């Protein structure tokens, strides 16, 4: 698990290799990732959007932008936590993801960016 704190918001990410399967006559490696967002600050905040850079050892990087996370725009009061899980497919058994969440501070009404630290995606059978 990796963690990082940006402006009082702690992001922790753990990953799981889910298996392989064929799609469009090619093998794909499925990974899930589990994100915990903790508000260690003194103000309530809301996650409004996300940005991901998905790095696959065999393909060009892919960028994904979207509103919220898994269809939600969670509000976190001081001391609250939001957890969610999602996933991605890679063409190889190795890769990584990194990104950020755009958030709004309800006290100042200012937007800010919270960094999601780079986390590795690796199939255990491919490691020495």
- Detail the poorly predicted runs: none
Distance between the termini: 20 Å
For the CA atoms, what is the radius of gyration? 16 Å
Mean pLDDT: 95
Count of structural domains: 1
| Helix/sheet category | mainly beta
What is the architecture at the second tier of CATH? Sandwich
Number of helices, counting only DSSP H or I runs of 4 residues or more: 0
**Biggest pleated-sheet summary:** 5 strands, antiparallel
CATH topology, anyone?
Immunoglobulin-like
Task: Tell me what the structure shows.
- There is one protein chain.
- With 128 residues, the protein is mainly beta.
- The chain has a single domain (2-126), classed as Immunoglobulin-like (Sandwich), CATH 2.60.40.
- It has strands at residues 2-6, 9-23, 26-39, 45-56, 62-67, 75-76, 81-90, 94-105, 111-122.
- The protein is elongated.
- It starts with a strand and ends in a 6-residue tail after the last strand.
- Residues 3-128 form the ApaG domain.
- It holds the Pfam family DUF525.
Please provide a brief summary of the model.
It contains no helices and nine strands. It has 128 residues and is mostly beta strands.
């Amino acid at each position: 698990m990796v963690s990082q704190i940006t402006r009082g918001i702690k992001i922790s990410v753990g990953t799981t290799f889910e298996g392989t399967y064929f799609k469009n006559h090619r093998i794909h490696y499925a990974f899930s990732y589990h994100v915990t967002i903790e508000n260690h600050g003194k103000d309530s905040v809301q996650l409004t959007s996300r940005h991901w850079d998905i790095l696959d050892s065999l393909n060009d990087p892919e960028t994904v932008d979207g509103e919220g996370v898994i269809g939600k725009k969670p509000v976190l009061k001081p001391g609250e936590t939001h957890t969610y899980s999602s996933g991605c497919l890679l063409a190889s058994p190795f890769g990584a993801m990194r990104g950020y969440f755009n958030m709004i501070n309800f006290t100042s009404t200012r937007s800010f960016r919270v960094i999601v630290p780079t986390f590795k995606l690796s199939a255990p059978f491919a490691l020495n």
